[in-house]
Amino acid sequence: MDEIILEKRQVNSILKSNLSLNTKKLYIESYGCQMNFSDSEIVASILDKNGYKTTRNLEESDLILLNTCSIREKAEFTVRNRLKSFKKLKKQNPKLIVGVLGCMAERMKESLLEEEKLVDLVVGPDAYRDLPNLLEEVEGGQKSVNVLLSREETYAEISPVRLDNKGVSGFISIMRGCDNMCSFCVVPFTRGRERSRSPLTIVAEARELYSQGYKEVTLLGQNVDSYRWNINKKGEKIDPNTSTTIFYELLEKVAHVANDLRVRFSTSHPKDMTNEVIHVIKKYKNICNYIHLPVQSGSSNILKKMNRGYTKEWYLNRIKAIREIIPDCAISTDIITGFCGETDKDFNETLDLMNKVKFDFSYMFFYSERPKTLAERKFTDDIPTEIKKSRLQKVIDLQKIHSIENNESSIGKIMEVLVEGTSKKSPLEYSGRNDENYKVVFPKENSKIGTYVNVKIERCTSATLIGKIV
Ligand code: SAH
Ligand code: SF4
Ligand code: F3S
Predict the structure, then answer these.
(1) Which of 38, 111, 226, 418 has its CA 20 to 30 A from that of 105?
(2) Residue 278 class from Cβ within 10 Å (0-12 exposed, 13-18 middle, 19+ buried)?
(3) Ligand nearest to the CA of 193
């Protein structure tokens, strides 16, 4: 029975692709991490082959897809509100299809259909290849859901439709899922098991981007340091006839694509970050001197409860290794305040760690309990919201001091900047980033988007370096 249905679906989709003259319009919006933005490009590519062209105009769309995030309660709240805002459009156009993709789809499954009467389609992060079939079901008048997670899916050979129109900087997913089970985190439940994508397809994608004029690629994964191809967790080769690749080797392969193609990567996990990775960053000029190394907390007690697999000392030791090997490497982090049982003493350990490291940037959050996570099952979410928030404010204030200190030390320096686009504040200025991922703004003069320019820094704010081309 299943086979017959599949055949009918296949025939239909072949007919569809032949008849794709009647092009439809897809409007896709992404929330959450860069992986979601990258996935939306895969979705756009799958649907492009089925007659959908992307649009930035909501009003003309036949299909609206929200690629959603579940990391904190607030992220889901934002999506719910966004869905409600489509009510009017749905009324005007009863044929309009609204779908929810990504982590919230995976977490909430069918219940999304009931909660928001607006949703016609729910598709989890490993089921995007099924979108054309699911859409057909919706067009036939049914609601449609596929939230199966996969152990293999990496969308390896799908060539993403780039949704950012600047053509300077592109994302490449190198792995999916996460096996770490940090106790606060919903990702292992929404993204499934960790799996790596073949190095050949990754390098091919980087080459393709470069040939299209891109000057920067960012290799993406929840924990890029545990990237491994053809080698299991015990270090054993899986297929004896194929060579193995681990993360630092992949970085080298991508660095070889072109000298003027910048290579970035995110996210590194402190427990897995090896000195080999740091040495490879140092060895290649085009691998950027920038490491995002989320610490979460400075208290070893809290880190243990978070199941992060390292202590404060271990983390500081990794920082020491980075600074010894690459003295001018920028380091950023993620911090959570108010995790279960966090005392004033624990919190002060976080401030102490920040003072020791002086991060270049931080992404800071207060703890938001997520259903099904280890923390939700094992610990009480016992820190009052006001305390979570006041601790967060302290962390933000301290980071601001460090950012200004770091930025001020750049004044007078000349740095190579990749021009990314017109500055949001002035049409006469461009904005770009230096090797260390600092945002730099400068008068356009005769420079062009997608080229490298040397900028002398004259002043700064806590978030931006401001200078002139020299
Ligand atoms: N894979 C990355 C992080 C992905 S999520 C890593 O391991 O570092 C991005 C950030 O969101 C996390 O680093 C963490 O700081 C934050 N975060 C995750 N779950 C959270 C929660 N339940 N409440 C608050 N912040 C959370
Ligand atoms: Fe979440 Fe931890 Fe995996 Fe990061 S490493 S995605 S924080 S479980
Ligand atoms: Fe959010 Fe899912 Fe990314 S929960 S942070 S979109 S992996």
Answers:
(1) 226
(2) buried
(3) 2
